[in-house]
Q: What sequence folds into this?
């Protein structure tokens, strides 16, 4: 009897000792809520964006999200990471017109670039915010879309992904450091990826440098800026005015690509016929790195895009009024010089430091 | 199915071992302190024990609501994969799967005051343990109505990610789309086709009202036995025909989802209310 009691006592004390984990002993994987210092420029046009109260940015969380983003462990056959189709050298877009999934499936849209994303939470007041067709309400939900899509990372369910991460030599510790517990869940995975994505801020283009008085705009850029921001080119209605640092309005438009939109766009999500063919306005930043252009990558060069808006837009019941207003005039009627100026303005929005070129 | 089928969680039940220890420690330490019990609202609480002339449900003190959901198709039992069922439109089919959310159980007083118990449960008709639930901290009162949502409220449906029953890992979530699948049923049709209905979308949320006036039960731990009639989504107010309305609903905007959502509002009935 005494033996039994002693044994029980021993078990309990071992258990208590085992539970004791002293962070002061130098456990590098102890929970570390050190906030991440987000670098947002302070000049005109920039502002903070809302961060969900249940997912504050931490150094450990962002670091974990970055590791996950570039890790092929997230795909069903360990062949593809988020970074496979969101290539940093391409401002986290895909140079292919249609991205290819981990099993070789051709996806029907191009991967969108990833930068300055979270301002959508501020400037898009609907619940449809992310992806070409608004198929994700927030960055946390967006993050699990590709993981489970049968044509993208092709995991049949989330449990197999979580099991792979849980068995991994490093991830349980990294999740513990970021979230306080080494049990890996869908939510923690999505939160880490979203944290990393919120830190992808591109703010160092020639345009930004000119705003910060670090360089002078060329005359051609100034001419292009005027075309951009006046009724002449009328780019600004959708791509944001010059006082906005984002060059997108974060919402959806039919820009007149087709008389009969082949891709239903926002209508897939809302079911409203008036949303047929509406796609999210992409930012005009980093265009040199994000070719080809449009949701289906149909244009290879920026000049093709400019020529499309100049003379190629097509009427349809849902075409944006800012596009159709040029129909009676047969298009924008830009001269070759004006097109060139517009191009130079657009090129001034490239941020080579963001894509790791500098 | 890749998930452990014997266990579906309620929100917050997905706790790790270490947090279990923490909970135990909290409980133990809580036991040391004298717990001051004061009536939450003496005026309201007073005399529930002596009240005899009432209808509906009286929960005399803060209590626990037990709910058991059973499933049928009309008057027939659900036998998965083998039994054939016929709906009002004469579609003949088997049932392979029924899974649904069961949330926002709300008790309603005669005055109209509504008390939302804010539960989130995911039930699988083929796993009986998932459709036996208990909701704690039910405030005392006399209730004459109850409301249940066979889905997820718009607040939780619209944004963010949640653990427990609302974890997207349970595959009751539309990735690359607009939120949770509220109710899922699928199977094979006699004509060699299959059908698959995933119902969701805030605008189609099946809120179900239940009247308690026919009962007279006083209990701190009442048990509701509910029956979910899977046939009700195919009729009343409108007949749903696979051939005419579609064999597949896989988003909140697919044709047919609106009709289905309205039909579902009479899917649940109280079969018993036990003390």
A:
């Amino acid at each position: 009897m005494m033996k039994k009691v002693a044994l029980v006592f021993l078990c309990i004390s071992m258990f208590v000792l085992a539970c004791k984990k002293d962070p002061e002993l130098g456990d590098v994987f102890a929970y570390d809520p050190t906030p991440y210092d987000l670098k947002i420029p302070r000049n005109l046009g920039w502002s903070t964006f809302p961060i969900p109260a249940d997912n504050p940015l931490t150094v450990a969380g962002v670091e974990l999200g970055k590791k996950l983003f570039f890790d092929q462990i997230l795909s069903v056959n360990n062949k593809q990471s988020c970074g496979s189709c969101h290539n940093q050298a391409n401002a986290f877009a895909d140079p292919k017109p249609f991205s290819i999934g981990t099993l070789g499936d051709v996806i029907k849209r191009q991967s969108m670039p990833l930068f300055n994303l979270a301002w959508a939470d501020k400037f898009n007041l609907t619940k449809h915010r992310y992806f070409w067709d608004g198929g994700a309400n927030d960055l946390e939900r967006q993050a699990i879309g590709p993981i489970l899509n049968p044509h993208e990372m092709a995991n049949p369910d989330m449990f197999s992904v979580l099991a792979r991460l849980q068995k991994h030599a490093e991830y349980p510790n990294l999740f513990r450091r970021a979230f306080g517990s080494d049990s890996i869940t869908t939510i923690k995975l999505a939160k880490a990826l979203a944290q990393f994505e919120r830190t992808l801020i591109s703010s160092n283009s020639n345009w930004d440098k000119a705003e910060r008085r670090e360089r002078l705009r060329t005359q051609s850029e100034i001419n292009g800026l005027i075309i951009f921001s006046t009724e002449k080119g009328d780019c600004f209605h959708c791509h944001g005015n010059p006082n906005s640092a984002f060059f997108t309005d974060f919402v959806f438009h039919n820009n007149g690509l087709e008389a009969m939109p082949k891709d239903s766009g926002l209508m897939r999500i809302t079911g409203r016929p008036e949303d047929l063919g509406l796609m999210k306005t992409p930012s005009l930043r980093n265009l040199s790195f994000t070719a080809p252009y449009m949701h289906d990558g149909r244009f290879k060069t920026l000049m093709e895009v400019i020529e499309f808006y100049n003379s190629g837009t097509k009427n349809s019941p849902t075409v944006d009024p800012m596009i159709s207003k040029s129909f009676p005039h047969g298009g924008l009627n830009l001269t070759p010089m004006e097109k060139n100026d517009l191009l130079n303005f657009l090129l001034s929005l490239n941020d080579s430091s963001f894509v790791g070129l500098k | 199915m890749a998930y452990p089928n014997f266990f579906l969680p309620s929100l917050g039940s997905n706790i790790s071992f270490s947090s279990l220890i923490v909970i135990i420690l909290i409980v133990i330490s809580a036991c040391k302190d004298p717990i001051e019990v004061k009536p939450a609202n003496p005026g309201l609480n007073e005399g529930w024990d002596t009240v005899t002339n009432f209808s509906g449900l009286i929960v005399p003190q803060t209590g626990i609501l037990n709910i058991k959901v059973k499933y049928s198709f009309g008057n027939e039992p659900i036998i998965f994969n083998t039994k054939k069922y016929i709906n009002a439109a004469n579609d003949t089919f088997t049932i392979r799967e029924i899974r649904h959310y069961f949330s926002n159980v709300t008790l309603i007083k005669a005055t109209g005051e509504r008390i939302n118990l804010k539960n989130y449960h995911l039930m699988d008709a083929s796993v009986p343990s998932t459709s036996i639930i208990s909701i704690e901290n039910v405030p005392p009162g006399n209730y004459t109505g109850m409301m249940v949502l066979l889905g997820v409220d718009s607040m939780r449906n619209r944004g963010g990610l949640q653990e427990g029953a609302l974890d997207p890992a349970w595959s009751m979530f539309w990735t690359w789309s607009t939120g949770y699948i509220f109710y899922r049923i699928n199977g094979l049709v006699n004509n060699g086709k299959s059908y698959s209905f995933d119902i969701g979308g805030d605008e189609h949320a099946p809120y179900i009202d239940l009247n308690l006036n026919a009962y007279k039960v006083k209990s701190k731990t009442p048990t509701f036995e509910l029956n979910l009639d899977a046939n009700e989504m195919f009729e009343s107010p409108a007949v749903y025909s696979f051939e005419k309305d579609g064999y597949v609903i896989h988003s909140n905007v697919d044709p047919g989802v609106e009709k289905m959502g309205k039909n579902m509002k009479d899917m649940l009935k109280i079969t018993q209310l036990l003390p």
